[in-house]
Amino acid sequence: MFNQESLKKLEQEKTRWESTTVDKVIKKTPERHEKFYTGSNLEVDRLYTPLDVQELDYMKDLGFPGEYPYTRGIQPTMYRGRFWTMRQYAGFGTAEESNERYKYLLSQGQTGLSVAFDLPTQIGYDSDHPLAQGEVGKVGVAIDSLKDMEILFDGIPLDQVSTSMTINAPASVLLAMYIAVAEKQGVSADKLSGTIQNDILKEYVARGTYIFPPEPSMRLITNIFEFCSKHVPKWNTISISGYHIREAGATAVQEVAFTLANGIAYVEAAIKAGLDVDEFAPRLSFFFNAHNDLLEEVAKFRAARRLWARIMKERFKAKNPKSMMLRFHTQTGGSTLTAQQPDNNIVRVTIQALAAVLGGTQSLHTNSRDEALALPTEESVRIALRTQQIIAYESGVTETIDPLAGSYYVEHLTNLIEQKAMEYIQKIDELGGAPKAIEKGYIQQEIQDSAYRYQQEIESGRRIVVGVNKFQIEEEPPKNLLKVNPEVEKIQKKKLETLRATRDNIAVQNALEELSKKAATDENLMPSIINCVKAYATLGEICDTLRRVFGEYKATVTF
Amino acid sequence: MQETKTIRVLIAKPGLDGHDRGAKVIARALRDAGMEVIYTGLRQTPEQIVEAAIQEDVDVIGLSILSGAHNVLFPRVIELLREKGADDILVVGGGVIPHDDIPYLKECGIAEIFTPGTPISQIVEFIKNKLSAGGKKQ
């Protein structure tokens, strides 16, 4: 980008500036620290100049938006054409209560739904399972059967909204329910758009809602890829998630590295299952986190996009440009929110959301100010949504594409993050790929080390968290937190009882037996799961059937 | 050399939530503070936690929960400890726990609740003070 002569001159001038202008000031007022670091512990220099990006080749490394390697964005016009999808993750209590919240959010200008399921649902237990005690309807909505799903989407036209469902181990079952509800609404599967998270590898690494061992889990995932490529073509079949990896303590660099390493594992599994890369890769999507280090976060998104494009093209020989585009949803960083002075969280979320937008996200969830205390209230969710709307309509950052490109610092950091992430991916390749690296505990250990270092930095005061280790005040405990109706568990149990008494139990048994047989073969399980769901077999019954064939995963514990 | 008994701690994750960053960071910090720490891993029932605590002869149980099931699961742990005659074990809790729930949990017998942002040094100090003031008899 720059000619050698001008770089040489610049270098001389920079040296001069440091030894004269800067030195004088430093002698009088020393800098705040001897060295400065990003959140990922990358050292930050005092000043960035063309010298730091002299290797950058505009066409090769940046190119144009909507073109390989997509560093500047995946769409040719980005937010000038249309804003990102404003998608607040929501769900609690019963299907009825969540349905009401969705209708409220849609009436407030939200443009997509995002369903939070409770933990028993996420782990494939019915609400009356002993392990579900105390958990029913707490962190999300309780879904036991197609009946609940019908209520959840009652009055919401599924051909007009796109729905994201945060579901992993039993993703195939919830997708089957969604398809069945749509059918009852008269909407055919090929009109459905949305996403299932369906990312089991990060469950073993960071989030813990796994059911089956890795091999059958990967099979369920590739079954979904194959089924959707034929019958639900607009559906994002997986959302390869760095979000939880980051929340577990990973740095921005590790988030990119471990997420893309998992992505590589899914692509390899699908190819091994006989699918053509360009058949399923266009429907892969990603899910990232946004923390407070604004410029590092922007660089992270740009680096991830470029790195994935290169991996798909060079490593997997994808030919369809859509296979190379890293499309991603972003959620602001839950773990960065503080229980102290919760209104400060609105400011944190704003910075993080801005990073996501400057980084070119396709969809965004902004966390609510009270999430370090409880599930968000309607009022705090509205503020969170308004934060997105203000960035979209008032901040001006959406009027031009990738506005931070060409910043010496941002480009340097983008290069550095890509390079460091690539080093991790090579290390994981040497260990035999992500599933093997997870089995060996390598990825978990790296994340835990970062989490511990972060905590120590806070303890020592090296890292400041406003309101926590600096600028504290005496506080009144916050009022008006959301309380989940304690009756939910009883209501769900009652519903299950009625369901089991009124459905055609022979049809249920037959459908479950058929699934059990198919599970023992190599056949695609989606059609059998859809049959079970339509017969009103419960989520627990379907998952138990698969548990009997596949077994359950037991994690090795380290800290 | 003065002989002091090393404090033994069981860090436990009751319920179904898989968010154990906090649990693991605390476990490691308590270990660095000279305690012996056992971590149960995810998805433990109150029964499993109490059994492990008794078997491992711990002085302290640290319960970590983020799913909102604390009002059901924490008191159950205390109840089981009483049933087994092991209620000399100090029980503390942490996680995303609304302020309004804390008085109830303390009434049930949880010695302290540490919410997000608590410095680890404060947790270490609390445990040491409590034990020397007659938590588990040494």
Automatic annotation (TrEMBL), chain A:
Q: Can you name one GO molecular function term for this protein?
A: methylmalonyl-CoA mutase activity
Transmembrane segment boundaries: none
Domain Methylmalonyl-CoA mutase alpha/beta chain catalytic positions: 38-552
EC number in record: 5.4.99.2
* InterPro entries for the chain: Cbl-dep_enz_cat, MeMalonylCoA_mutase_a/b_cat, MMCoA_mutase_a_cat
Q: Which cofactor does it need?
A: adenosylcob(III)alamin
Q: Which UniProt keywords apply?
A: Cobalamin, Cobalt, Isomerase, Metal-binding
Metal-binding as a keyword?
yes
- Tell me the protein family, please: Belongs to the methylmalonyl-CoA mutase family.
Q: What is this protein called?
A: methylmalonyl-CoA mutase
What is the organism of origin for this protein?
Thermosediminibacter oceani (strain ATCC BAA-1034 / DSM 16646 / JW/IW-1228P)
Lineage of source species: Bacteria, Bacillati, Bacillota, Clostridia, Thermosediminibacterales
TrEMBL record, chain B:
- Which UniProt keywords are present, listed alphabetically? Cobalamin, Cobalt, Isomerase, Metal-binding
Give the protein's cofactors. adenosylcob(III)alamin
Annotated GO molecular function terms are:
cobalamin binding; isomerase activity; metal ion binding
- Claim: Isomerase is one of the keywords in the record: yes
> What CDD domains does the entry give?
MM_CoA_mut_B12_BD
- The protein's superkingdom reads Bacteria
The UniProt entry, under InterPro entries, shows:
Acid_CoA_mut_C, Cobalamin-bd, Cobalamin-bd_sf
Gene3D superfamilies linked: Cobalamin-binding domain
Metal-binding as a keyword of this entry, yes or no, is yes
Where is the B12-binding domain positioned along the sequence? 6-134
NCBIfam families, per database record? acid_CoA_mut_C
Q: What is this protein called?
A: Cobalamin B12-binding domain protein
- Species the sequence originates in: Thermosediminibacter oceani (strain ATCC BAA-1034 / DSM 16646 / JW/IW-1228P)
**What lineage does the source organism belong to?**
Bacteria, Bacillati, Bacillota, Clostridia, Thermosediminibacterales
